[in-house]
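Example (one chain per record):
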Amino acid sequence: MKQDEFERVRSALFCTSSGKGGGDRKCGLVNQPDFKALLAEFPWIRYDTLVSIYSQDCVARVKQAYGIHRRQERLDEYGERWRQGESLVAISECLDFPPCSLARLLLPNLLGSAFVTGVPGRVTKIFNDPDCLQPLLEHQGGDSNKLLDSGSIPRLISDVKACIKRDHVSSPLVASVKRAVGLEYEAVLYQLLSSSGLAYETESDLRKKGATKTPDALLKIPFLLGDKVVNWIDSKACFCSEELYYNDGVKQFKQYVNRFGPGLVIYWFGYVEDIPFEEGVLISDSFPEQFTHL
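Predicted structure:
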């Protein structure tokens, strides 16, 4: 995909689309675009590619908006809206800010910062199991229970559950799906390596030997892709934009090149072809069909 085409796709992902009941709604961090319509508009682009581009753009937009929504005066306003009966999901839709991100920011306001941030991992525990909030509050006692009346606690638990269900950007469910997809494509890579007769060590194998910062597969015997030597392969279950490559890829791949020599990175959902990729790193969106054994 060329950069100009990528920009057109990214712009289309955040345009107004048909909402429920026939009305229009603005796509953004809460309302997803109509992927079916987008596939009709860009029939040569895979569904997984569209979702990956959208997901990356959402993450970037959340980072940009985070500083605004974490201001104390904003949190006081959102907390008061919740106490007046507005749900966390409704507030997040109004703000176009992911429900789980909003809930994480707002929990200290609703429950007390000492309760929420005083114990490492407490927020993660609450999002992994919202029902644990009631016994945690009963055990904690003190100021935490003064901020909410007893009837508000079940409502907050229900709201956190609704946030997790509604959020397609920052919920623990989304994180779990991304991890699962990443592992799935690593397994695909290993299967293709084995079926191609290429011996390799996995990242897990290398870490058992004490290695750190390792690719997904280090070849025991390199192969030639065209006239380029490939010593290692890294699997990325995402689309590679210029921002992603320079923010998350360059430093990582340089370490691989310095330690293991040149290699190959597979972005399974595609990449922007115009990116000036680093020396020693080949980029592809698939496992090579033809190569030369050494």
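Caption: The chain has two domains: 3-171, 174-293.
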